[in-house]
Amino acid sequence: MLVMLPGPTNVPERVVRAMLKPVMGHRGPEFRELHERIIENAKYVFQTEGDVFVLTCSGTGGISCALENLLKPGDKAVVAVSGVFGERMAETARRRGAEVVEVPVEWGEAPTPDEVEEVLKDDVKAFCLVYNETSTGAKARDLKVLCELAKDHGALVVVDAVSILGGDELPVDEWGIDVCVTGSQKCLACPPGLALISVSEDAWKTIEENPSRPFYFDLIRAREFWEERHETPFTPAIPLFYALDEALIMIREEGLEARIERHARCARAFYSAVEAMGLEVFPRPEFRSNTVIAVKVPSGVDPRRLREIMKEEYGVLVAGGMGKIRNLVIRIGCMGIISAREVILTLTALGNALNNLGHENDVGAALRAARRELGLARG
Ligand SMILES: Cc1ncc(COP(=O)(O)O)c(C=O)c1O
Q: In terms of domains, do 247 and 359 share one?
């Protein structure tokens, strides 16, 4: 089965095989060596000199960790909400007891500097946003400017980069991101189950002053274990650490820049081809993500049936919509090991399944459009 979901995504065989190594103790030199390499390579992917931690939990756990270490009950947080994951971020902060000011954004679009500036007052502790809203396929293209704005107002910047880090440009230090969170199962091409989180110097100052940090996700405790022994405070998911190690080594071998360009090329191929099929992409061109392709399902086509045919007849798994656009779109992951092969197979499945359901389209023309973008001969 080709897993073209916007996470979890296809995992290279090398990474799968890495998980078969015998389980080791997590308080010995073998684990420390593994952990050191993982952190060094993770810093490369985050483009940070700051601290990075690997947490045994999914992406949502990473977001909870970020917000519960930074925010005390009563603190003010501004959260941009442009889809399901923005809503979750706001809810996480609210449940923490923070006073949350939402910046409502049209789904399929991204927060603008003007919208954010309007609510950013100097008493805001954290400005939080989802860089790549997986539910809509839209990227916050102004992230760098938004970070500068937040800094001008003394707010820390917390970025949910779960569906984008490792697949698109995100220089954490250069853009001034204080806490950045990703998950193992997306652009890193690793199985699900781990979250990675970066922490800046400024973020540490706030965390150190927070007496109500969570117990399991206490970042100060994680820092102590890292600094003193290069270990994790609690038992890590060792097979997943093996997998992450191999996945990060593969990223280094390819080079981050080449990897980002590969994602961009495959995204261009998807967008050109679906438009050649007569389909409408959910976000307008200026907001389109390179890692999540959200396409409107033509009227008269049942999205559930469309996905069923793609899965059962072509062995290609894509996702449905979420939240209020649940029945409006399908979402394709353009992540991790994405290459011409996955793009062509997915488009073939999509075009033929649509023909099957009576939405006539020229699959050949769509594939030619994709091949041109992929730089394949005689596109
Ligand atoms: C942007 C974003 N944030 C958070 C999450 C939650 O991650 P997880 O399902 O790994 O907890 C996801 C998962 O799809 C996501 O895409």
A: no
Contact 178, 156 (CB under 8 A): yes
pLDDT at 378: 62
CB distance 9 to ligand 1 below 6 Å: no
Q: How far is the CA of 124 from the centre of ligand 1 (A)?
A: 25
Quick one: 219 and 261 in the same domain?
A: no
Beta pairing partners, 188 = none
162 lines ligand 1 (CB under 6 A): yes
**One-letter amino acid for residue 257 of the chain:** E
Give the DSSP letter string of 107-144. Answer: TTS---HHHHHHH--TTEEEEEEESEETTTTEE-TTHH
- Cβ–ligand 1 distance for 183 under 6 Å, the answer yes
CATH number at residue 368: 3.90.1150.10
Side-chain half-sphere CA neighbours of 178 within 13 A: 26
On whether both 233 and 122 belong to a single domain, the answer is: yes
How many angstroms is it from 88 CA to the middle of ligand 1? 9
CA distance 342 to 328: 24
What is the predicted pLDDT for the residue at 379?
Answer: 46
Q: What is the pLDDT of residues 19-46, one digit of tens each?
A: 999 999 999 999 999 999 999 999 999 9
> What pTM was computed for the model?
0.98
Q: Is residue 268 part of a domain?
A: yes
| Residue 183 CA to ligand 1 centre (angstroms) | 7
Question: Can you give the residue range of the structural domain that contains 133?
Answer: 12-254
Q: Is 85 in the pocket of ligand 1 (CB under 6 A)?
A: yes
Question: Which among 254, 283, 309 is the end of a domain?
Answer: 254
Residue that finishes a domain, picked among 205, 235, 254: 254
For the segment 109-120, the average pLDDT, to the nearest whole number, is 96
Centroid of ligand 1 to alpha carbon of 242 (angstroms) = 22
Q: Are residues 306 and 222 in the same domain?
A: no
